[in-house]
Amino acid sequence: MATTTIPTSARDTELPRPLAKPFYIGPLLVDPPILQAPMAGFTNYAFRQIVREFGGAGLLATEMVNARGFVWMDEHEAEHPDRLWGVAAEPRPLAVQIWDNEPETLAKVGARLATEYQVSVVDINFGCPVRQVTQKAHSGSYLLRFPDRMGEIIERVVKACAPTPVTAKIRLGCSRDRINAIDVAQVVEGAGAAALTVHGRTAADMFSGEADWDLISAIKPHLKRIPLIGNGDLDSAAKVVAAFERYDVDGVMIARAALNKPWLYAQAAAAVRGEPIPADPTLAEQRELMIHHFELVRERFGDEKASVLMRKYACCYAQGRPGARDFRKHVATIKSPAAFYAVVENYFPV
């Protein structure tokens, strides 16, 4: 199957003025029309706070929350999942993504998020391709083969969360020979969802190959009322502008590229407004940003756990920088704040 990818030839500083406009998810205005993707293990409160400080994301999202685990913790009077760290008090708008395959469980958790946490959007994950979610839990992208089940889930969650809007995130299908995104999109809309996000790969693709934006765009004529958000391979302001110019989408969602460039949302937002694009922070500023990230994690988890957690975040910051391999080798062993600061001082480029 031919795949159309977003060109990288245009220089960010020479981007034409685009036509991207804010859009609504139910009553919520998403402005700018650029969303921060939920990413398990990464988009916690610390990451969201850093993105918020740079600006540019019209809607931020948590990591995906296991609905069944949330219910178990609730019933056993345990602390709610770490993936809800900061949600109750942080600024809005904010989406929380949940996953499971039981309509009742998802509806129960959605209702709690809408009422107790007062989140802006409840998003249902039908796109995660990892084995633990699909094969072991029969959730995420596994459910793409059962659109009727997806419709039942969405209807129950929409009813439980009202008036908080409910959205869905999907992939193109289970595999390249089983692409059913248009049929699934119509089910999602018919069940009452307020928006649809489509990642331009199939579940079988995982994260390999290139996202097919032609197939994402082909969904739009089949939606009557809800916005379509495209996701996949957006790693520069130029690509974001190209997505809006070339494809029939209302919004875009930036994911993995922002893990080592959390300022990308601000750059993309400036580009879609036709404004000068902010320069990347200097390496010295990026080092200070990484330390700021560590302090946010440390406040929540304490010295030892934060040091271990920071290993993967620090590796993201180093990606593509001079000496990244040597830095990753040393940061992978840190067990204390002192060790972290020493590795940053000695091995992170400036």
UniProtKB/TrEMBL annotation:
CDD domains: DUS_like_FMN. Its EC number is 1.3.1.-. SUPFAM superfamilies: FMN-linked oxidoreductases. Catalyzes the synthesis of 5,6-dihydrouridine (D), a modified base found in the D-loop of most tRNAs, via the reduction of the C5-C6 double bond in target uridines. Gene3D superfamilies: Aldolase class I (3.20.20.70), Putative flavin oxidoreducatase, domain 2 (1.10.1200.80). The keyword Ribonucleoprotein does not apply. This is tRNA-dihydrouridine synthase. Keywords: Flavoprotein, FMN, NADP, Nucleotide-binding, Oxidoreductase, RNA-binding, tRNA processing, tRNA-binding. It catalyses: a 5,6-dihydrouridine in tRNA + NADP(+) = a uridine in tRNA + NADPH + H(+); a 5,6-dihydrouridine in tRNA + NAD(+) = a uridine in tRNA + NADH + H(+). It is an enzyme of class 1 (oxidoreductase). Its cofactor is FMN. It comes from Lacipirellula limnantheis. Belongs to the dus family. The active site is at residue 128. One of its GO terms (molecular function) is tRNA binding. Signal peptide: none annotated. Pfam families: Dus. Residues 36-340 form the DUS-like FMN-binding domain. FMN binds at residues 38-40, 97, 169, 199, 255-256.
